[in-house]
Amino acid sequence: MRDEHYWPDWDPDPDPVIQTGEVPASTAPPVDPWADSPGIDRLDTTAVELPDDDLAEELLDSGPVVIPPPSPASRFRRGLGKVLMVTGGTIALLVLLYTADLLLSVGDVPRGVTVVGVDVGGMERIEAESRLRTQLEPRLVEPVQVLAGDVETELDPVEAGLGLDWPGTLEQAGNQPLNPVTRVLSFFAEREVGVVTTADPDTLHEAVAELADSQLDHELTEGTIRFEKVPGTDGRVRAVAVEPRQGQQVRDIAGAAQLVRDGWLGAGVEIPVTVTPPKATVAGVRTALDSVVNPMIAGPVPVLGEGVKGVLKPDVVSAALRFAAQDDGSLQVQLDQSELRDALEPQLASTEVPGKNAEIVFAENRPTVRPAEPGRSINWERTLAPFVDVARNPERPGLRVVYNAEQPEVTTEDAEKFGIKEVIGEFSTTGFSGDVARNVAAIAREVDGAIIGPGATFSLEARTGPRTASQGYVTAPVFEDGSGPRVIGGGVSQFTTTLYNAVYFAGLKDAGHTGHVHYFDRYPVGRDARSLAEDGSVVDLAFTNDGKTGIALQAEVSGGSVTVRIWGTKRFRVESSTGPRSDVTPPGVRIVPGSDCAPEPGKAGFSISDTRVFYDLDTGNEVRRETRSVRYAAKPAIFCR
């Protein structure tokens, strides 16, 4: 018998009866489980039989026992047990720490919370509010930085009615989180909760609106160039670039006020604006200034006329420059020629020679043609066309004046072909004197000799122009009878009525006239005309030569009488037919106090019609008639007291 025996405590090959519950059909020899185990001798149980005493002795033998190495399964079970023990301990520790942290921080501000950069996390709420007040109260009165478009400015928070709700600010930080992950992360992260602002809505809205109106909103400034006079010089100027600036406007005042309320304690508040961008760029303005404008105003520009030299000084040139911003960012320089022309006309006026139309002069009451004279006038457009290039030339070569030859409207040949051979209409009036007579004589001189071609229209005001003292006019009462305010050229309506009646009997077409407001008995009723209104303003008279030949006007004044004759080729015999007066209204009476009162007789008002009848010269038959109605207003009699 061997000294060492090993008895396994497990059966590597369980009894099939135990495993399956069935008895095998045949009995096989027993299998030795250790037959293939190294280091263990297999016992031959068939050859040796031990007695019972020996077996007991063998079993009770206390010799050394060999323990087999642990199997993978046993090792796994032992490792799993250790892991579960460590994990359970860790969880228990974490639960203990979580519970302690939760109990210790009940009611405190959550960790990691900041208010406008002030760390109040983990503090008791009273302590947190105290810190906020200490840190933020000085900032409550500091100006709020406001950015709107290209404007940076400040807003006074006190005047805007802004303040802080301290408890409300901490309240929005929330309570301690129950999520353990969140609580752990709060040790390593910050959470900005901002502030709860108090504000008077009306005060804040008004403050923001006033800020927008006074500072934030501004009009578009387009890039351009302006000029400054240089003191102590003769017309020198300095060009200054005006840099472009966008236009902008705060359109949503309520929204801007809310932005201020939400962010006034931060780094600043940006308010959105509606922007209108300029066209010109800074570079575009600078290019125009350096390459065009500065050379043009570097010195005076000479202008060379016929025998006369004019000059355009830099201040005149600068006044004529216009600037237009372009879509490509450039600044276009333009020239207003009228400014240059206004400056040059007085200097070059003597170089122009006005043309003279052929006229009819009357010698011994017979018409004679006075020949026309050609004239010379400045062609301003052609003269000023090269101005920019000449002005930019540093050598200042001068600008040469270009003239046009002025042909008269009525040539000598025209006048001779007009068929002006006889008087076709004539009329005279009387009853004026003094200053009125001087004015009537002055206007008669202006009209005398005028020629009107076939189809042309004659305007009395266009012929005479403004009535000035240099033309021989003096101040006189507006009305021919000496009444009304005194004006220069007063009383000339005497001539106007005379001309109208000459046109009337010449059979020419009336192109517009205005009768007197009140009737003057020195004129034919219904056939008067005036050149002045009650306030002295001008009233025109015009007629058209609707014949096939030309006509000429002859006007002469003698004493208190004026006569107008119209020469041409007679076409009609003209007569006037006046209707009865109707709708007569009495003049009334007006009493005027004061020593400067002038009594005047009253005039009745009435309506009347006048008919112009045309007769054929050869047959004497009536050709046509023209009827017009006239209404004269009553004029009250003035009594002085």
Automatic annotation (TrEMBL):
TM segment ranges: 83-104
Species annotation: Amycolatopsis marina
Top-rank lineage group of the source organism: Bacteria
Residues covered by the YoaR-like putative peptidoglycan binding domain: 326-389
Official protein name in the record: Vancomycin resistance protein YoaR, contains peptidoglycan-binding and VanW domains
UniProt KW keywords: Membrane, Transmembrane, Transmembrane helix
Keyword Transmembrane in annotation: yes
Region listing for Disordered, in residue ranges: 1-41
Coiled-coil intervals: none
